[in-house]
Automatic annotation (TrEMBL):
It comes from Roseomonas fluvialis. Residues 70-101 are annotated as: Disordered. This is Uncharacterized protein. Residues 70-90 have a biased composition (Low complexity). It comes from the Bacteria.
């Protein structure tokens, strides 16, 4: 069976509202002009919102752990100067990985 799920890229949230037990979150994409434009609406039953947020928080923790581990593997044995605000590997490579909950 083919996977027909839509894929939506969003880099922000424009607004969120709750009505009739459903949270409606308007997702945004930032254009070349720097302005956010709506790209989709995520609808989640309010009763499921805590588990969705917890799942996203756990994903963020796993990503942070992976980035830290990659940075530790790439650092030389001698102490290096701290890289402020640089979470990406120094050689410009980015990693892709899958997480399980």
């Amino acid at each position: 069976m083919a996977d027909n799920r839509p894929t939506v890229f969003a880099d922000g949230v424009i607004e969120a509202q709750v009505a009739h037990g459903v949270a409606r979150i308007t997702l945004a994409v930032t254009g070349n002009d720097g302005k956010a434009s709506p790209c989709a609406t995520l609808c989640v039953p309010v009763t499921q919102l805590p588990s969705l947020v917890n799942g996203m928080g756990n994903l963020l923790k796993q990503i942070e752990e992976r980035v830290r581990a990659q940075l530790q593997q790439q650092q030389p044995a001698a102490p290096a100067a701290p890289a402020e605000g640089n979470a990406a590997p120094a050689d410009g490579q980015t990693g892709a990985f899958r997480f399980q909950n």
